[in-house]
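User: Batch of two.

Assistant: Item 1 of 2:
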Amino acid sequence: MTGGRSVTRLLTWLYVGLGVALLAWVVAEVDFKVALASILDMGWQGLAAAFAIYLAAFYIDSLSWHLAILRLPLTLRWSYIVWRIRMVGEAFNTVLPAGGFGGEPIKAVLLKRHHAVSYREGIASIILARTVNLIGLVIFMLIGLILLAGHEAGGRYASFALGGFLFLTFGIGVLFAVQKFRATSRTGTRLGRTRLGARINAALDHIHDVEDRLHHFYAERPWRFVPAVLLALANWVVGAAETYAILYFLGHPVTPGEALIIESVNQMVRAATFFVPANLGTQDSALIVLAGAVTGSPEAGVALAAVKRIREIVFVVWGFALGSIYSLRGLLKSAERGSENEDGEGNGQPPG
């Protein structure tokens, strides 16, 4: 157990080191004074615009997850609650060295403890949201790949982008097929006929139930599945709008198509290097190279990467603040239960 943790910790630091080394190599000849000056020239209007656009994208993505939680009504109040829980979970996803999945259990716990959504349903909805998000990403990357092929900078990066697109599309397709056709359940049924069948079936019982929920969503809830995919795609497109706005206020305007190219390839790099905590170095290097190639100024890429990191830090702090509120509510509920138990015992009544 301890050895496994040591290996995990070592790999985490190795990935971070490689990401930072890549970033150092990319920015070796960048003039940081120029990049800093362009950030300062943005003013509060530029930062506010970038934050507002990202907030819109985040909310759209939360709506996509909301559609996957079948027991929650589709109202504004519940959409706000789902957004708030996602803010907390994504803050942990960013900082925990768990490949961007460290905050997913926290989302399920918050749904269960505060909103009576069972762990199985919560976990199923999180898997659905992730899968739908990736399907939207494939469509978004395809659009970006087509635009890149017709751009003057496409010759240098088109082959890399195509290879990454095909690799990620294959992986996402396998993930979707496993859920859609209940591959885990079928495999478990066959293994259940072996000598270890009873133990295997007991271990897979929870997985069967979650898989049934996934199949039910895909097969019997198309009026939720299709809008969820469209919202996921809209989230990625709005992310490209954020890139467009940041570069505009930095004084390096690009076309909407060029912003989409930058964001789509950046997201491809993020997806391929998910194991690097917070995509440190990898995301920043991709933005510097891509924005530098499109605008002709590597400094514009450095400024773009820096603004996105500033925004990310603000949202992480915001998410932890919301998480603190949930923790305080939990403590108050525990205190209330303890007080009720004491009152019950003092009055000769059964506690609780």
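Item 2 of 2:
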Amino acid sequence: MIIIRSMKNWWFVCENLKSMLTALGKAESARYVLYAGTAAFYDSGVDDMHENYALLDHENIARGAKADFDLAALNSAVKLGLKFFGITGRPHIWPFFFELSSECRKILASNGLAREDDFTAMWADLRQTETSAANDERIRPVRDDDVRAWADDAWHGFDSDEDAPESFMAEARCIASHGDFLAVGIKGASTGMLFSGGETAGIYYISTRPEFRGWGFGGAVVEYLKRAARERGFRYVTLLATPSGRPLYERHGFTALGAVSIFSKQP
């Protein structure tokens, strides 16, 4: 079990993300390619940039904060990512789990990658006192016959006016059938998912339909998943927070580990 000891260990959030994308790569609509020593690319089959990822591998992540970071390797990885997503035709995001130097930013800009946003890598200590929301009986694990409703709730929770596309449905079916995933929700209102197949546990897809926001559903789902991570033997749980989501996670015991720069590229 990984114990997060310092602020510099926020790339463990990336470890869980990479492990999760590897598992999701088995979905019928997805493609996952690992270029050993360089990067990993995940195409979900969904035409939404935030569903498709490029990631540097762990060795490059570890070198990222050092002065001797291999700029040529970064340039090569970016070009491989552009080639991969050029073939699939998907927009994608590329989170960087280290502070980017001016030289790194120049490489990204020269390849057409634009600064999208800054997310926050966060973690929570599961030894903290459990809240009553962790036992909320309205929250149910997703079963095979619930997959479509869960996917639609998640999609609308991310402010889409349409139901989830079939490609996201394929991803949701993969989640529902894979033992390392635990997808849960308050049907018709809120969703969340825990991935416990990495060295750390990670929380994803926390969303609430607009008409139910402010009712505490998202926080209840977070507490439920924290308890599930604890029951699966984890001491810590990680996540990537958007700027709008960070206050929710802070209210539920998460601490910021560091900023993650998000760059994006349209096909």
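Helices lie at 12-24, 58-64, 71-88, 102-110, 147-157, 166-177, 217-231, 246-251.
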